[in-house]
């Protein structure tokens, strides 16, 4: 129950790579340390808790296990487990954030959701239908209480993953029991939020229960979770001062708050919207059966429901003190027009379902294999919003319904591992990933409960990716190992169409092929020092939403480009990994480099008249960086465990002919500096305390870095925040914990405001 579990997991990942690459390295000394390493190895490769990451790890891997999560992190969402891992940042705006929590990696910011891959028990939960805040991993299909461990593979260095792995591959392994067990956890959280003219407390609670058993060859696991959460306002309605007309016209109002936008221009903030109240229900059933001692079948069913009600508050008051939500108003001698949808409510009703099945062998002999498939289905995905002015309370009226039902993806994987001799381990396979996007926007007479009537717009499209890969891990001798592989991909985009109220225009089918080579080299310089180098190419194809979302005007498709090129990245890293204090600690130093051609960003094409703003290819982005990660146990005093990391990234746009102003500027949302620090002190077997510190340097949201005012709505600011957690094990079954996130109450932004100081309390019962 300590931070050393994190260190042990990371050491174990290194030991696996080294023990397969250098057979005499992991066990060449006959002492207690070797016994500990052997035990760690058995833990991580245990057949009933397999990682989906390649058995031969060709690059940097980090991880954290359940005990370390329970001890060190105030975890309310699955993504919280990644909070202190090197170079990772999840843009989580509030507890229960279900639609904007994008994962950022070394050379990819929080606007690039399609540049990482997230799995849960081998099931893809990354939403690769699009790229951006609206296409975040489906974190809700994993709860913190069911996590056994999380492994993170940095970079596109494994041929087993598509080009979306250019940033990282995250693999959640959830629990499967070895005997009867059950767990119940109740958590409460509250935030005192003060921003602009909003001063209010937002709270929530979470209840989770798990039950499982193993009897002979059959094991099962059930997890249920409900989160009821109120978020602080995420959007602040605004009007640029320059947009107002100097006049006495309009209804005189008070309450507007003066400020400056990210470009430093004066504006009025007139309301707070997107105040989510979400009730999220999660249920998961996992079944496993050992057909033979070496062949295991498993099935996972998961369902996630979300009932969201978003409210809005106007800051404006008329002469009688009544709130003003729309119409012509006069603020300090200028007339502004507030549109009916500027300060408006909205609703979501979602039900997403996933299925995953696999059959795999684990002989550890000459040949092993696996057949796996998964389905992710938007069974219900309804968003409702008004198109007429409404007061703060929910009152019906005309609106629109956005129906994404039927959207989803499915995957198929055929994998093999061939061990022809002790020097070579060959991994190969075939994969097929298919994505379907279907969105219909309809008019309705009653935005709250009314039925859909006429079509307002629609878009749809499919994409398929069929891939063949092979990689060979060759143990050259006791000191040298190399891994060489490649991935051939056949990509297709088809059945794309875009509609307005009366017209549907189809897109032409596209078919493209790509090959991505991979290579890595590891050298054991001494018993405690390993040097590694990796290089790999990644091809990230455009998503269906990047290709097919847009509008139709006079029979012409506008605001999107169905001919977008794929992103093509060459990534490399050089690492030195030093074992410290007889294996108690680790120090890793990694230099990384990435060249990306045709990066996909929304920008303005200044080469055409009139200018077009949509998703386009940015010619070249270059990133150079340094990552230092350190972990150690019993530092200075017994019971004090420390882990930390520092990342420097120099990420620059080096060519962009369509938008010349961006050349030489920083890549959006990739800060120059990031750092994490965690100190955990075990007072005794019952009590532990943890202090975590997270830092991110200045970043920009625009390609031309024109957003110079970071600490404001729509800005991307630096931050330094501290988190505190105290955990006490009352007895064998009862555990209590209390924590504070953002202890220093830092107000910081990533387009939307992050959570201010919040209190978390937990009570857990194990049986």
Summarize, please.
With 767 residues, the protein is mostly beta strands. Helices cover 6% and strands 55% of the residues. The longest helix is centred in the N-terminal third of the chain and has 18 residues.
Q: Say how many strands there are.
A: 41
Structural class: mainly beta
Distance between the first and last residues' Cα: 17 Å
Shape: globular
**Strand-residue proportion:** over 45%
Helix proportion = under 10%
Task: Give a quick account of the main beta sheet: strands, pairing sense, barrel closure.
Answer: 26 strands, antiparallel
* Low-pLDDT windows of residues: 10-49
Radius of gyration: 26 Å
**Multimeric organization:** single chain
Mean pLDDT: 91
How many helices in DSSP terms?
4
Task: Draw up the topology in text.
Elements (H helix, E strand, L loop, with lengths): L3 H18 L10 H13 L16 E5 H7 L16 E2 L12 E2 L12 E4 L2 E2 L22 E8 L13 E7 L6 E15 L2 E18 L2 E13 L4 E6 L4 E2 L4 E2 L4 E4 L5 E27 L2 E20 L12 E5 L2 E5 L7 E16 L5 E20 L12 E5 L4 E11 L5 E21 L10 E21 L4 E20 L4 E3 L3 E15 L4 E12 L3 H5 L2 E3 L2 E3 L8 E14 L4 E21 L6 E21 L7 E16 L17 E10 L4 E10 L22 E11 L4 E8 L7 E2 L1 E2 L4 E9 L1
Parallel strand pairs: 4-7, 13-17
Antiparallel strand pairs: 1-6, 2-3, 4-5, 6-7, 8-9, 8-41, 9-10, 10-15, 11-15, 12-18, 14-15, 15-16, 16-19, 17-18, 19-20, 20-21, 20-22, 21-23, 22-23, 23-24, 24-25, 25-26, 25-27, 27-28, 28-31, 29-30, 31-32, 32-33, 33-34, 34-35, 35-36, 36-37, 37-38, 38-41, 39-40
Helix pairs in contact: 1-2
